[in-house]
Specification:
Length: 181
C-alpha cells in the first residue's frame, strides 16, 4: 500500500457527500453541498510535504481547527480517494483548470480553495455526479500543460480507515526519528 511521501507536490482529495445541506464556510459564505463527489485540489510545499498535508485532511477529529475552506467541507464528507504527484513545480491551478474542463464538472462555490489564487482560478473545488476516471483527468491535465500524457505520473490511493491510520503513524515515526541525533 502506497503512502504519500514527505516530498512536496500537488494533490486532489476525492470526497463523497451523501446528502443535501447548506454549509457555512467562514468568510467565503455558504456552500450548498449536494450528493455526489467533490474534487478538491491543493498543494503541499510546507514541512512534511504531501504526507503531512494529506494526513491532516484525513484526520476526522473535533479538535482540528478549521484553517482552510476544505476543512469545513471535510467535516461533512468522506475522503474516498487521494491523487497526488511529487514535484517542486506548483501545479495546483493546472489541476483545478483540468478538473473544471471535464465533462459534468461544476464549481459549486466561487473561490472555494482559491481565495488567494493569483492565477485567477474560479475555484479549486469541483463537483461531479460520479467520480471521474484518472485516465480522463490525465488527458485534460496533459492538454492544460501541453505535455504528453505519458509524462504525467499521478499516484492514486483508495482511502480506507487502515490507510488513514498508516499515514498518521508513518508521520509520527518520521517526526520521532527527526529528533534523533
Amino acid at each position: 500500500m502506497a503512502v504519500p511521501p514527505s516530498s512536496r507536490g500537488t494533490y486532489a482529495l476525492i470526497l463523497a457527500a451523501d446528502c443535501h445541506q447548506e454549509l457555512s464556510v467562514g468568510k467565503l459564505g455558504t456552500l450548498v453541498v449536494q450528493p455526489g463527489l467533490y474534487m478538491y485540489v491543493g498543494s503541499a510545499y510546507g514541512p512534511g510535504g504531501l504526507a503531512a498535508r494529506i494526513a491532516r485532511h484525513l484526520r476526522n477529529d473535533a479538535d482540528k481547527s478549521l484553517k482552510w475552506h476544505i476543512d469545513h467541507l471535510r467535516a461533512v464528507t468522506q475522503v474516498v480517494e487521494v491523487w497526488w504527484t511529487e514535484g517542486e513545480e506548483h501545479c495546483e491551478c493546472d489541476w483545478a483548470r483540468a478538473f473544471g474542463r471535464m465533462r459534468r464538472a461544476s464549481a459549486p462555490r466561487a473561490k472555494f480553495g482559491a481565495s488567494d489564487c493569483s492565477s485567477g482560478c474560479p475555484a479549486h473545488l469541483h463537483w461531479f455526479p460520479r467520480q471521474p476516471r484518472v485516465r480522463a483527468f490525465r488527458r485534460h491535465l496533459a492538454a492544460e500543460l501541453g505535455v504528453p500524457v505519458a509524462d504525467l505520473k499521478i499516484r492514486v490511493q483508495r482511502i480506507e480507515e487502515p490507510f488513514a491510520s498508516q499515514v498518521i503513524v508513518t508521520l509520527k515515526r518520521r517526526k520521532k526519528n527527526a529528533n534523533v541525533i
